[in-house]
Amino acid sequence: MAVYDIEELYSYLGVFGNFQMFVVVMYTIGERVTAGLLDFQVHILSVVPPWRCISDRCLELTSNMTYQNKSILCKMDRDEWDWDGSRDNLITQFELICSETYKISLGSTLFFAGYPIGSLFIGLIADYVGRKWLATGFLLLTGIFNCSSAFLSDYNSFIAIRSIEGFCIGGLTVTFYPLVIEYVGAEARNLANVVAQCGYGLGMTFLCFTASYIDSWRAVIIATSAHLFLVSVLVGTNIPESPRFLMKNKDKDATQVMRIIASWNKMSLPDEFDMSVSEEETGKERAWSLLTYSRYTCSATLAQMFIWFTAALYFFALSFNMNDVMGNPYINLAATGIMEILINILSYFIIDRVGRRNCLLASFVACGISVLVCRLLPHSPLHYSHLSFKTVMVIIGRAFGGFIYSLVYLYSAEIFPTTVRSSGLGVCVCAAQISSLIAPFVIVINENNANVVYSVLFFFCIFAFMAAWILPETANVTLPRTIAEMDAAKDRTYSIFTENSPLIHHEQSSPPATY
């Protein structure tokens, strides 16, 4: 009976055929679009709506105002003003103003608190029981809990449900994304990642336009949840378990999965065949071995954790800080989502040529420059030209931050081996979401000192740049299967000025060799 290597089979069956395209589209809609919708749900549904005076004192206090300043509301009694009734959101429903404003940040923080718990806990489980059914279950659970939050009349119950949603999204990320990476060939991983990560910006943009045109916050939540039920059914009935995971556990169903892929991609395989797998790959490697196997695997793992931490802090801090810049908050956030999509599309033509590591280094430089410029500009409503320029720099910096946040998904999935890929991603996502717990309170910090946020982000960009320097290049390189293969990648930690780069080596598509 013929024995084939899985990478050769993928080259023969198609690195990005009909089946892989279906998996990527399901992941994009099910996880990335959903994350873009839920990450900013509380933030965008808490934009202060228009209000009107119903007392003479209120009219006197606001007579010289050229725009509605929400801080003036706290200087008046509640019976001196009222909402104009044009919009029903979380602020009007639960009176989240003045002394209750902290609950807005608390709602986002509890959501992000569920993220690391879900990613770490479920990531460890997924490396033992598989990815497919966990991903399907979390798709369904996310839809159920998000829809149910639209029918709550108590804010404490609302944010409690939000924390469960965060747990579900964390679990969904570390189970679904490894499926995508393990199904796609090395030559197409960049394309798959670009398509998927554009979904996040699409989710943000869709949320902004939905919230701006639909007056009821309950209707917005329902409208941004319905797709999850359809995707969960399609994933559960059409996507099998990863053959790499099945091979790791010596499961004979791996050959059947390859036949399913062949059928989708309109290719043929021999009537009888088997796939080769090393003894090391079938060993029971644990996630903590990443820290104990060698000095390099420990350093690379810790460096990735810090990069994820910085990427999330930068990304969400600038996103939640949109109130510090001029313009409509819906349009500002939607603009950053659209720019993120454009940058991700542009990155497709760059990442494979320049390399993952070099793109990461350059992006941290761009992010550092943008926040440094924002730090140096005066923060005063009298300097309208400066505020307009700051708005542009924040949007550009936020877009590059989004690109980094997208790139590290692909980069880390290519660095961590198959045996602990879900666990490794889980640890990194956990680090990212710990920083996300801090990000919602940027709004509170910004009210006291607007420049603190930009200064902190600038120094984090410097240290993240240094951490990225020790990581290997992974463009067009076969996915590592074991921690030993990950350790061997230290030979690819070239300088960006080194001519002897692994980027010149590309996998060739050819029929599988027979052993």
Key descriptive features of the protein:
22 helices; 515 residues; globular; two-stranded parallel sheet; disordered C terminus; two-stranded antiparallel sheet; mainly alpha
Helix/strand-derived category reads mainly alpha
Mean pLDDT: 81
Largest sheet: 2 strands, parallel
Distance between the termini: 9 Å
Q: Are there runs of 5+ residues with pLDDT below 50, and where? A: 494-515
Number of H/I helices: 22
Rg value: 24 Å
Helical amount among residues, as a percent range? 55-70%
Shape designation: globular
Number of strand elements = 4
Q: Output the strand order for the largest sheet.
A: 1-4
Structure overview:
By secondary structure, the chain is mostly helical. The chain is built from 22 helices and four strands. It has helices at 6-13, 18-39, 41-44, 56-61, 90-94, 102-129, 132-149, 155-183, 189-213, 217-223, 227-238, 243-248, 253-264, 289-292, 295-320, 329-354, 356-376, 384-415, 421-438, 442-448, 450-468, 483-488, and strands at residues 2-4, 51-53, 81-83, 273-275. The strands form two sheets. A two-stranded parallel ribbon has the order 1-4. It has a two-stranded antiparallel ribbon with strand order 2-3. The longest helix has 32 residues, at 384-415. The radius of gyration is 24 Å and the shape is globular. Residues 494-515 have low confidence and may be disordered.
